[in-house]
Specification:
Blueprint: H1 8-19, E1 28-33, E2 37-42, E3 45-50, H2 51-59, H3 66-73, E4 77-78
Antiparallel strand pairs: 1-2, 2-3, 3-4
Helix pairs in contact: 1-2
Length: 82
């Protein structure tokens, strides 16, 4: 899966959903795809999503549990202040 084939708007939708849990995460800036994960750079830091979570958001977002969202939110790392 390349950056061109991963639906960016599904990532943005996940960030919008996570804003209800943790508004400290910020807005989408960019992402990088790795083997099973996607590192998403936000305006306030970065967060790690599994590819399967992004695919679920794209295909059947209603099946993503609150626990899955909270687990994703827990991977957020704030940007280091200069």
């Amino acid at each position: 899966m390349t950056k061109d084939t991963l639906p960016t708007y599904a990532i943005v939708e996940l960030l919008i959903r996570l804003a209800q849990i943790g508004p400290h995460i910020g807005d989408y800036k960019d992402h990088a795809i790795y083997t099973d994960t996607v590192i998403v750079k936000t305006t306030l830091g970065h967060i790690t999503f599994s590819k399967s979570l992004i695919k679920a958001q794209f295909n059947q977002p209603e099946l993503i549990s609150d626990t899955e969202l909270k687990n994703a939110a827990a991977t957020f790392k704030p940007a280091k202040k200069a």
